[in-house]
Q: What sequence folds into this?
DNA sequence: TTAAAATTACTACTAAAGTGGTATTGTGCT
DNA sequence: AGCACAATACCACTTTAGTAGTAATTTTAA
């Protein structure tokens, strides 16, 4: 296979299981577009060494025993924002996925995915893509939907919607009243009705329920 | 190619450009796992007919002139939640992508993607995946990051993070104090410090800034 | 080993927010 | 015509939230 790029994509791998590590390294070595610069078996060394290397992509196993790959990404990403991190792991509960993305990971590939897809993922991340297993993408979309539908089925009136939107901006009753040309007391009444409908009794609760 | 499934995946396509429609239909007909049950050139007919068909996946072009594919999905998805919708389009600004996902679309494929990937996407959606072009996935991840980093760069201490999380649940000072075995006055002090750091002066503003 | 944060806590006060009751007017639906 | 509901508004009252100043103790980082 001829290289498609002038220079190879420089990557590092953080993986404690030597068997898996050897396996993926051998897979990636077969790809002439990728150069495995260095591998790490634990986070501390990775954390101390990676900033001194020139790298495009780092593949990180999340669940090294007793350590946390997400913390590694969180610590490294702000230091070297140009590096793309791909989480490569068997853990894929929603919490973990989001923590990883939050920490700054670009891609998230489960080990269940055919391992040879990893090199595609690396190229994808390098080109600015966000490689993700389809099950991961699913989770994100699902949580997106949940996020959008967490709202209640309660119907607020037009005025009430206006007001709850203003509440969400942290405006005071007085400020809302001024913007809508209402008396503070009217705003108060609307808010009371909103709370009644949503079955809550504070602004924050209302916002949590409604949005 | 032998069918991989006992029965074919039944799909419909909504696409006004007959050239593109013919093209993708011919592509999909070559796939023995997929059966194109019906095609539509405009939304109204699609809206009225689709509920009467037995379908697994519907491929929708978002930008039919003067109409809105997202509205179609929004209207149909609640009626027939078992159908998976794949948006197939050249529009892919962040707004549109999110609106589509919000409306209930499962996948989002740009026309820039190799057209033959469409059949993969259909199978993926059918199996419960969330097919997405890598550029779309990118957008989602990016907006996720933006969402997470809309937060200030301000560093809250461990205690302060605990407390702001509780604030976000709508707990009162007294309730927070009890949960953390602190005096209400201490909670009050922490919150004052949080507000100082975030440069705000109410709970809602703090939450908006931080989350 | 210092200086800087973080964590704890109190007093005293003001400003908002939330609760409860009540009432008028308008609009849409039956 | 009558009912339900939305929108407006006021009074009176209690509870929380937010502001300000101060300070002791502990942790953490330079």
A:
């Amino acid at each position: 296979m001829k290289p498609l790029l002038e220079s190879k994509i420089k990557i590092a791998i953080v993986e404690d299981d030597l068997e898996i590590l050897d396996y993926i390294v051998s897979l990636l070595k077969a790809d002439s577009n990728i150069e495995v610069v260095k591998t790490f078996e634990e986070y501390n060394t990775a954390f101390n060494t990676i900033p001194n290397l020139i790298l495009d992509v780092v593949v990180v196993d999340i669940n090294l025993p007793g350590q946390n790959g997400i913390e590694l990404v969180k610590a490294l990403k702000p230091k070297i924002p140009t590096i793309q991190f791909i989480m490569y792991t068997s853990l894929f509960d929603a919490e973990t996925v989001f923590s990883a993305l939050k920490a700054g990971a670009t891609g998230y590939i489960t080990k269940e995915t055919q391992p040879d897809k990893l090199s595609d993922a690396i190229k994808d991340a390098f080109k600015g893509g966000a490689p993700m297993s389809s099950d991961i993408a699913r989770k994100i979309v699902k949580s997106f939907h949940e996020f959008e539908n967490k709202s209640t089925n309660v119907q607020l009136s037009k005025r009430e919607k206006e007001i709850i939107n203003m509440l969400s901006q942290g405006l005071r009753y007085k400020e809302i009243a001024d913007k809508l040309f209402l008396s503070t007391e009217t705003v108060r009444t609307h808010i009371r009705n909103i709370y009644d409908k949503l079955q809550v009794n504070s602004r924050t609760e209302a916002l949590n329920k409604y949005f």
Observations:
- Residues 134-149 of chain B form the longest helix (16 residues).
- Residues 157-160, 182-183, 185-186, 188-190, 193, 202 of chain B lie near DNA strand C (CB under 10 Å from a C1').
- The interface with chain A takes residues 98, 101-102, 104, 106, 124, 128-132, 134-135, 137-138, 140-142, 144-145, 148, 167-170, 200, 202-205, 207-208 of chain B (CB under 8 Å).
